[in-house]
Structures are given as C-alpha cells and as structure tokens.
TrEMBL record:
This is Enterochelin esterase. It comes from Paenibacillus cineris. PANTHER family: ENTEROCHELIN ESTERASE-RELATED, IRON(III) ENTEROBACTIN ESTERASE. It holds the Pfam family Esterase.
Length: 223
C-alpha cells in the first residue's frame, strides 16, 4: 500500500514467548481497543478462566478511506486485503508466538469491518476460518460474491445485529441492517457454513457491540 500502518497488540496475562496463542485480528483496530474495550474484556475473560489466553491485534484504519479499503467495490480494497494477508499476518507471526492454524485465527469486524473480514476469509480460505461479525455491512456486491461460492463448509461465523438497525444512514445510503444480516445468514447457511446468529435490541453503535464482545470471543476461545 506504500504507507505505514499502526497495529495495536494486546498480550494476555502470563504471556511467554515459548507458549503459542490463538489470535484475534480486528479491523478498525483503534475503535476495538478504545470503544470496544477489547483488551479489558480479554483480560477479564482470561483471568476468570473463561477463555484460554489469546493475543489481540488491532489494525488501524484512516476513516477517510475506510470504505475504499473495506468494501469490495472500493479503490483500495484489493491492496488492503493483500496487505492484510500477505504483509500484516507474516509480520505478526514473525514477532509473536501466535498459532498459524486457520482455526486459531479469528477475524473480527463491525459494520464494513465484518464485510472485509468475510472477504478475507473467502479470498484466503487457507488462512482464515473464523469470523466475528458485529452488524456486518453486507451490501449487494458482497452478497453476490458469496452467492457465487458453492462450498463454505469450512467457515464459522458469529453474527449479531441490533433490532434498531432497520434504518441506518451510512456513507453509502440508508440501509436495513437487520434484513441485510438475515439475508447473509441464509446465504452462508445454504453454502454449508456454520453460523451462530443473534438479533438483540441494539443500535449500530459501539455501546451495543461492546456488550456483545465477551460472548463473541467466548464462542471461539472458551477455555
């Protein structure tokens, strides 16, 4: 991408370089740490022996070009997804003892972050099998690409959407995220994916997603 990109890394209590760890890679890394409080949540889950120790990597994004990087029709999408899989992942794996099994890597994202996480898994199925999707922004382009896949039986997706997200104004227009996520759930199930799908009272904001992060993380990382 011909630029530098900040990464935020959370290391679990008792971290030791001779131990290998599952890893959660977060789109919108700054927001996952600041608004999602993912480091605090991870710490508590691990200290309470609910989750096995894991590492969190937040990949920061310039919000002014976020749609261009996260949406499949964006001008920076191909460069970003290649950078993520071919540069960021090897960089982290060189510096930290994270497990390299695709079942030990979790991609997490909110809104368009959920969308790009799904595309990463479809583009690199040998690398990513597990996704946390918080109110994923699965617009028409993404649904058409998923529909073209015959077999997604290797994919495991945790999806949640808020029931008050029926009229959300995004930079691309006004969308019913409940219907979008219901459609995506059916597309994924029809192609053999494992889907844990939940609808709850909530809006398209971090105040909702932060409360749901513990269950989302435990779905994949329960001790």
């Amino acid at each position: 991408m011909n630029e530098s990109r900040n990464l935020r890394v959370y290391l679990p209590p008792g971290y030791h370089e001779v131990v290998s760890y599952p890893v959660v890679y977060c789109q919108d890394g700054e927001e996952f740490f600041n608004f999602g409080r993912i480091a605090t949540i991870a710490n508590q889950l691990i200290l309470d022996d609910l989750a096995e120790p894991f590492i969190v990597v937040g990949v920061e994004v310039d919000t002014s070009v976020r749609t261009e990087e996260y949406a499949p029709f964006g001008s920076r999408f191909e460069a970003y997804t290649r950078c993520f899989a071919e540069e960021i992942i090897p960089f982290i794996e060189q510096k930290y003892p994270v497990r390299q099994d695709p079942r030990q890597r979790v991609l997490a994202g909110d809104s368009l972050g959920g969308c790009v996480s799904l595309h990463l898994a479809m583009n690199y199925p040998e690398m990513f099998h597990r996704i946390i999707s918080l109110s994923g922004a699965y617009y028409t382009d993404t649904q058409e690409i998923v529909a073209e896949n015959d077999d997604l039986s290797w994919l495991d997706v945790y999806m949640i959407v808020g029931l008050q997200e029926t009229h959300f104004e995004s930079d691309l227009g006004v969308y019913n995220f409940v219907e979008i996520n219901r459609s995506m759930k059916e597309l994924l199930l029809d192609r053999g994916a494992t889907v844990r799908y939940t609808e709850k009272d909530g809006k398209h904001i971090w105040g909702f997603w932060q409360k749901e992060l513990p269950d989302a993380l435990l779905y994949f990382l329960r001790a």
